[in-house]
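So, read this over?
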Amino acid sequence: MSKQPSTGRAPGAMPFSKYQAFKPIDLPDRQWPSQVIEHSPRWCSVDLRDGNQALIDPMNVDEKLRLWDLLLDIGFSEIEVGFPAASQPDFDFIRKLIDEDRIPDDVTVQVLCQARRELIEKTVEALEGASNVIFHLYNSTSELQRRVVFDLDRSGITDLAVKGTEIVKEGLKNFSSNVTFEYSPESFTGTELDFAVDICGAVAETWGATPDDPIIINLPSTVEMATPNIYADQIEWFVRNFEYRESTVISLHTHNDRGTGVAATELAIMAGADRVEGCLFGNGERTGNCDLVTVAMNLFSQGVDPTLDFRAMPEIREAVESINKIPVHERHPYAGELVFTAFSGSHQDAIKKGMSKVEEGLWEVPYLPIDPGDVGSSYKEAIRVNSQSGKGGVGFLLEEHYGISLPRELLVEFSGLVQQLTEKLDREIKTEEIYDSLISNYIVESGPYRLVDYDLLSAKEEGQRCVARVEISENLVTIDGEGSGPIEAFVNAMADTLNEPIVVVDYREHALGTGTDAQAICVLAIEDNVNQKRFYGLGLSRNTITASLSAIVSALNRRWNV
């Protein structure tokens, strides 16, 4: 017997023995592990019901209407709008949608109701005039609730479900609307599978479900009780053994008590489910419902059409935050402010290289599972700089935001200065702060030289002559030189007049902005003839020649300041 690894804690520090492990499902020939999700399920948003009942401050009418319109914009065609028998605001909201003709012809409203006559009658009243309706009936079926809450045996719980179905059927018999019946054995995950099959079968038989007029059987993980594979086993076992499978849409409604609501949903789809209920960004009671955004985007990232539109993800997130008054986590998959962000230097470098090689067709960029542009973000937001970042991030941001491509040697040198700045400030630094640091460190006037002005004249053999005035330690000196162009002429003037030999290397020029007010930034290095060391300098001006000559002076000043 192998020795248990040390955890650093005394055994039994927490009272784990008061809890029972969930018994595995006897399904040795399970098929779901080898299945692949090739198309999206039917989606049903329960934000207006399950999501709303989880809020500290429930939505008012205006907020509900904003969320309703948002759900329509995203593309939901099934939306659970409330529990009208339990809440007058829910009743009034449903009536408002119907009376003001706010429900598109291709959208179905879903309502929830317990299996009680007076509640069912109230719900039927709320739905009068709706074109497409899902009537969602539920009662709890778990062994725990039968024993602790209801003090009923299996037959007693089944009787509640069957009688409730009969009352709904009777109440809706004169409806001219298109009605779909949905039944949930609440707390399905804590219900014996044979009993779940039996009670759902009794409901299907009572309703008269047929392949042409199927019912929805919703199998909720009302409280997560086990690992996601167990839920998948439960779904596959149910689907295999349910007599009315061909007359049924199998629906899921997971919660996130163990933090695996999305995983449970995905595995359960693989196990044979057709439909998914959940909320945007996982809102819902306790730890929340299945996050429909993540499930849909997971499909999208695998090349499957999610049939929901999240191209405006930042706006969707902001709207939901405003309505729910709950922030979406910064690291929330696909939607959080930081999910396309890399601080690590090696990651930044990989992203930069990946983006430079992206071609039309498949998206293949390290550390970015999807193109940020597909959900309304941009490449510029992918990389941010703190003390853990390296040259790749600094270079990327300067290039993306300012069009400045630094030579590798300068990038390595400057990245060290940026790291010093982040450590000094003890925080992330903004892109504009990186740019400001570049300017302040490499446009250097605190040295022996300052360019006052210059004139360019024609020289012999189609060359140029540069006559410049340079301030040297507060003394104004005129220098004069010739060359093939203005830079060479200025360099020769410095050498001839001031005995300051200069070799210009690694010259780069970039435009900052467009139009008549655009500035040019020149990046160059001078090389010391003695020890071959390079000194970089920058020049900034609306005139490219002025920028170049200023860059030479900055590089000289940096050499003298070392």
Observations:
- The two ends are 66 Å apart (CA to CA).
- The longest strand covers residues 449-458.
